[in-house]
Amino acid sequence: MKVKIRQWNGVASWLWVANDENCGICRMPFNGCCPDCKVPGDDCPLVWGQCSHCFHMHCILKWLNSQQVQQQCPMCRQEWKFKE
Amino acid sequence: MEDIGMEEDSAEISGSAQKQGVADAWETVTNALMSPGGPGPEQGLWDSLALLSGEGLGRLLGGWLLETLQMRLSSAVVPEFWAELQQPENELEERGRAWVLLTAFQTLLGRLEPFLGGLERLESWQDEGRGSVCGPGPGGLQERAFTIIRALLLFSPSPVLQERVLEFYSRTFSVYMHQEGQAEDGAEAPEGPEGGVCPGCGVPTQQCWCKEALEQLKELSHILSKLQLLEWVSCEAVTSILHKLIEQRMEQHCRGEYERSFLLEFQTWLELVLGWLSKVFASEAEKDGLLPAPGAPGAPGAPSTPSVPSTPCFQAGQPGSSVLKQWRCHMHQFFCRIYVNMRIEELFSIIRDFPESKAAIEDLKFCLERTNQRQQLLTSLKSAFESRLLHPGVHTSDILTVYISAIKALRELDPSMVILQVACQPIRKYLRTREDTVRQIVAGLTGDAEGCTDLASELSRGDPVTLEMQDSDEEGADPEDWTPDPTDAVPDKMGSKRRSSDIISLLVSIYGSKDIFIDEYRAVLADRLLHQLNYNTAREIRNVELLKLRFGESHMHYCEVMLKDMADSRRINSNIREEESRLSEEEQPPLSLSSIILSSEFWPPLKEEKLELPPVVCQAMEAYTHRYEKLKAMRTLSWKPHLGSVTLDLELEDRTLTNLTVSPIHAAIILHFQDKSSWTLEELSVKLGAPKELLHRKLALWQQHGVLREEAGGALLRGGDGLSEQREEKLQLFWAYIQAMLTNLDSMTLDRIHSMLRMFVATGPVVTEMDINELEGFLQRKVREHQLLVSAGVYRLPKAN
């Protein structure tokens, strides 16, 4: 007996490779999107800081914009630098 | 005036001397009053009258006359009347009875005529100012006299009178209607065959007394009117006749017939009936019409003299008098009431047939507005729903269908929607208790439910403008346009503005919130998307767009993301496919894998099942994941091994099964049998990481295909290459069935044979699914072996010898 698979249609869900479930700023799941967005994934990406904390990009940008003096990670208060 | 004064003077001069004269004068006057001929005013009479007045006796005259009338009535006239009426006990036929009725009244009139004449005379004297002769008391003398007549005559009426009157009127009615009907048709009265029955009077044609009956009717109504008994004697009979006839006609014409309107038809018919009424109330009508009734009624049986010249008034069917106007109103009222009664009884069926029964609904609406039967309608409809619809024997989708029809029908019937709201309350309440209501509604909305296309079309008809209007409750409503709710409206916070007639809103509001529907829709959508292989979402996109108009953008947001996932997945798949194609031959993946990639937060929770896929599949998935990670930085995939579908070919020793589409677990099972031909359920369960019960269920598919078989030992399974003989045996068993079928039914198509076999197989001991292709092959072989003939797709057995 020989089985020949012509086509395998699988189902998978995508997820961010992040060390946390939820965004520390908006408290929404990373796999969802920030409150201002409608569509997750490409349209509402995550960014990582050098401190290894990550946030929805829109969330952290908003946070950074609101900081007058120094730009810090909202979680660990280190200076925020985007991780390359 | 002067004349009177002089006479009074003379009476005073000569009065006191002649006491004897008073008695004589009384005699003269009373005689003159009662004399039937009605003598002209003579001087002697005037003198006597003057004398009596002078003595103050004038005013006793009226009293005396009434007294005499009363005496005469009770002692002779009334008993005579009743005796005459009842006299020919059950001996006469209808025609005779009609005659007796008429004569009885004629005699009555004859007996009373002198009194009536006397009364008239008295009144005219009074009017001429010949002294007050009518005596004290309210009302005219005549009026009092008629009251006395009525009182004494009808004090204890025998039922025979009503019976006779009813019978007589019914007869004249049918005669009249028959004649009018003919006139209407423009057809000459056909001379019935010898011994035929006249449709008017219901006797053999040569004895037809139609004409006579009408004459009698005229006469009778005249007498009755003269005695002012018309109303008292006829009304009841006429009312009951009208009632009966309208009812009868409605039973015959309208019951069960919902597709055309009957209002006009009945209107014409009622006008015709009014013609008959005008005959019954001819004299009354003419009195109102200010046409003085000429003299005594014509002698009975003198058909040629139209003694009552009232017909012109009514010929056009236009009532010229208030009596007829009244009756017309009555009839109209009867009609409406009877119609409403009948339709209320039938309302459930009308609703069920709704778009076809629109005419009936419109009629009912017209009539219902004229009667006070809303409450009755509500009660009846509610109980009809409860007894015919809301019980466990009715499928939810059928309840919904009726509910939708009810919404459509009742919003026609009652634009205020109150009936709809109240009558359908039980349905809504009941639907809330059914578990599959939401599913059925959603299926209806997406056009999946068979037979229930209303919702889908309703959805696509959705008019966002009107929907928004419903949402913005306070604004835009002109206070001038406000109308109060009908009295039977349920007092609730919503108010009439919120009383929606929109089918979808009504259905959705059964549960009070849209969320539950949207969740259900999401589940249905997820199910559909995951089970279709072609990523074709055009229909779903359309549905979601339409639902967005209904439920608002934000509610359908999740569904939109789901649809976007499908589009994204297709793009990613083709991306990855392209990348793979650039690889060299040996690097090609062993398995063509594509995937639906979900945004897990936006999909409904999918059921988790554990399943270890064979290594070859796992490797392919890993490779896919790897490519995905390259494509989308910092993202990875989490596979749901049990979801999806697999298309595969199965090469067995004796045959090949191609293009089977199965679920991943089926594929995983059969893949394991490729390497090792027999497994115990235990082993398989460990290998696949799936519970045994589940596996056992899934194995059935392969058993049905004859690929696997369960050994007698129970636990042992065998990947079968040597199954063909067993298969052959089974087919031979079928052959016996097929032969028997063809012997009995002569010829059958392949499909027919297949479905018949399936039926036998289902009931027989061998639980094996037979593939139709396999069956065809088998039958073809039989054809080659000349055991079977085939022509134009129809199989038959060859003729014996």
UniProtKB/TrEMBL annotation, chain A:
It comes from Etheostoma spectabile. One of its GO terms (cellular component) is anaphase-promoting complex. Pathway: Protein modification; protein ubiquitination. InterPro entries: RING-box_E3_Ubiquitin_Ligase, RING-H2_APC11, Znf_RING, Znf_RING/FYVE/PHD. GO terms for molecular function: cullin family protein binding; ubiquitin protein ligase activity; zinc ion binding. It is found in: Nucleus. GO terms for biological process: anaphase-promoting complex-dependent catabolic process; cell division. Together with the cullin protein ANAPC2, constitutes the catalytic component of the anaphase promoting complex/cyclosome (APC/C), a cell cycle-regulated E3 ubiquitin ligase that controls progression through mitosis and the G1 phase of the cell cycle. The APC/C complex acts by mediating ubiquitination and subsequent degradation of target proteins: it mainly mediates the formation of 'Lys-11'-linked polyubiquitin chains and, to a lower extent, the formation of 'Lys-48'- and 'Lys-63'-linked polyubiquitin chains. Residues 34-77 form the RING-type domain. Keywords: Cell cycle, Cell division, Metal-binding, Mitosis, Nucleus, Ubl conjugation pathway, Zinc, Zinc-finger. Belongs to the RING-box family. The mammalian APC/C is composed at least of 14 distinct subunits ANAPC1, ANAPC2, CDC27/APC3, ANAPC4, ANAPC5, CDC16/APC6, ANAPC7, CDC23/APC8, ANAPC10, ANAPC11, CDC26/APC12, ANAPC13, ANAPC15 and ANAPC16 that assemble into a complex of at least 19 chains with a combined molecular mass of around 1.2 MDa; APC/C interacts with FZR1 and FBXO5. Interacts with the cullin domain of ANAPC2. Interacts with UBE2D2. This is Anaphase-promoting complex subunit 11.
From TrEMBL, chain B:
Residues 470-483 have a biased composition (Acidic residues). It comes from the Eukaryota. Pathway: Protein modification; protein ubiquitination. GO terms for cellular component: anaphase-promoting complex. GO terms for molecular function: ubiquitin protein ligase binding. Residues 291-311, 463-496 are annotated as: Disordered. The keyword Cell division applies. The keyword Transit peptide does not apply. One of its GO terms (biological process) is metaphase/anaphase transition of mitotic cell cycle. Keywords: Cell cycle, Cell division, Differentiation, Mitosis, Neurogenesis, Phosphoprotein, Ubl conjugation pathway. Residues 504-703 form the Cullin family profile domain. Residues 299-311 have a biased composition (Low complexity). Coiled coil: none annotated. Belongs to the cullin family. Together with the RING-H2 protein ANAPC11, constitutes the catalytic component of the anaphase promoting complex/cyclosome (APC/C), a cell cycle-regulated E3 ubiquitin ligase that controls progression through mitosis and the G1 phase of the cell cycle. The APC/C complex acts by mediating ubiquitination and subsequent degradation of target proteins: it mainly mediates the formation of 'Lys-11'-linked polyubiquitin chains and, to a lower extent, the formation of 'Lys-48'- and 'Lys-63'-linked polyubiquitin chains. The mammalian APC/C is composed at least of 14 distinct subunits ANAPC1, ANAPC2, CDC27/APC3, ANAPC4, ANAPC5, CDC16/APC6, ANAPC7, CDC23/APC8, ANAPC10, ANAPC11, CDC26/APC12, ANAPC13, ANAPC15 and ANAPC16 that assemble into a complex of at least 19 chains with a combined molecular mass of around 1.2 MDa; APC/C interacts with FZR1 and FBXO5. In the context of the APC/C complex, directly interacts with UBE2C and UBE2S. Interacts (via cullin domain) with ANAPC11 and with UBCH10. Interacts with NEUROD2. Interacts with FBXO43; the interaction is direct. This is Anaphase-promoting complex subunit 2. It comes from Champsocephalus gunnari.
